[in-house]
Amino acid sequence: MRPIQKSRKLADVCYDIRGPVLEKAKQMEDEGHKIIKLNIGNLAAFGFDAPDEIVQDMIRNMQNASGYTDSKGLFAPRKAIMHYTQEKRIAGVTIEDVYLGNGASELIVMSMNALLNSGDEVLVPAPDYPLWTAAVSLSGGTPVHYVCDEQADWCPDIADIKSKINANTRAIVVINPNNPTGALYPDALLLQIVELARQHQLIVFADEIYDKVLYDGARHTSMASLADDVLFITFNGLSKNYRSCGYRAGWMVVSGEKKHARDYIEGLNMLTSMRLCANAPGQYAIQTALGGYQSINDLVGPGGRLLRQRDIAHKMLTDIPGVTCVKPKSALYMFPRLDPVMYPITNDQDFAYQLLAEERVLIVQGTGFNCFTPDHFRVVFLPNSDDLAESMGRIARFLDGYRKRHGTA
To answer: Tell me: the pLDDT tens digits for 335-394?
Structure first.
């Protein structure tokens, strides 16, 4: 029989957070090996539970969650999100500007599907959260990666962004707080990006899913609060701030210069209707989450578990010869660099395979986040302190052996 091939649209798509190295880890688990997984920000797997009031609210409303909701979502959670945008100083948001989705991920893909034609370009950060690159490609567009500069605490390089804008550029993606680097961008930089969007009539897609996961007293500014003459599409949800990954409760807010975007918004509405609605139980969690006690502050503040684990991971990694790492100001990840002289890596996926095989530690290689060079990797610092210290110790042991094997110790 003739082989059935996958779509050519998938040729440039990768999602190595759940890629081939994870498949190898699953195989090893089936063989009885215990793997320490530092590959994905799945908080529940590490004992970070959703707040009780969210769980209880979903249970109480389960009887009401059997039918379809409005295609954009239930009124009460959308109104709660509208109020949240006011807290974030985003002007002019109405109920009709708020779309609920099965996580922000669904809405990211939808926003690209509604926008892009063949030949259209979207500026995407490098490194990035790979769903963004994949969503642009799947939608028929071309992702163009702009540099985030490690020497400037992983902030976007404005000159590089400018150099990559052309007549085909439709939008720019800004991931702030950032996954995978943990960077948090200062207002002055955000204003520069907004000015570029204004000059070139670009849409700003603002991924702000970690906007409450902030350390050392840092504050987050929503990009959409900085202008009303640029079109902003802002993404957020319950997954990270409220440890509710599996509930798939996310949202998208359209704000700013909507007048000239009526046709695009019509496209968003069409796609929203086609998928009928987001899952109803997850929608019932949103109002309670946004209006309730913000327990994330206990985790990221002084003495908090996430802050403590960030500090453990950062110290133990940077104590390893040849490893440097910008200390994250936000999110759940760090993106260490391996000195290419001490660690002459040519294929970082093979490097991840070797670490997994020798030390039973699962990481994601840097090129899985569209990093230009094979000298970075991402780790999550979610395991409890003992397991985290164990995993960092295993990475140190592996890298010691790597240096000896390559004569760079």
So the answer is: 999 999 999 999 999 999 999 999 999 999 999 999 999 999 999 999 999 999 999 999
CA torsion angle for 85, 87, 92, 95 (degrees, to 10)?
A: 50
Chain segment 32-43, per-residue pLDDT in tens: 989 899 998 999
Q: Do residues 307 and 300 make contact, with C-beta atoms less than 8 angstroms apart?
A: yes
- First-residue to last-residue Cα distance in the chain: 54
Which of 50, 54, 108 has the alpha carbon at shortest distance from 234? Answer: 108
Kind of pairing between the strands at 361-362 and 36-37: parallel
Residue 142 burial by Cβ neighbours in a 10 Å radius (0-12, 13-18, 19+): middle
How many other CB atoms sit within 10 Å of the CB of residue 344? 14
Q: Which residues pair with 173 in a beta bridge?
A: 205
In which residue are the tokens 């948001």 written?
93
CA distances to 183, 217, 315 from 302, rounded to whole Å, are: 19, 9, 17
Q: What is the DSSP secondary-structure string of 210-223? A: TTT-B-TT-----G
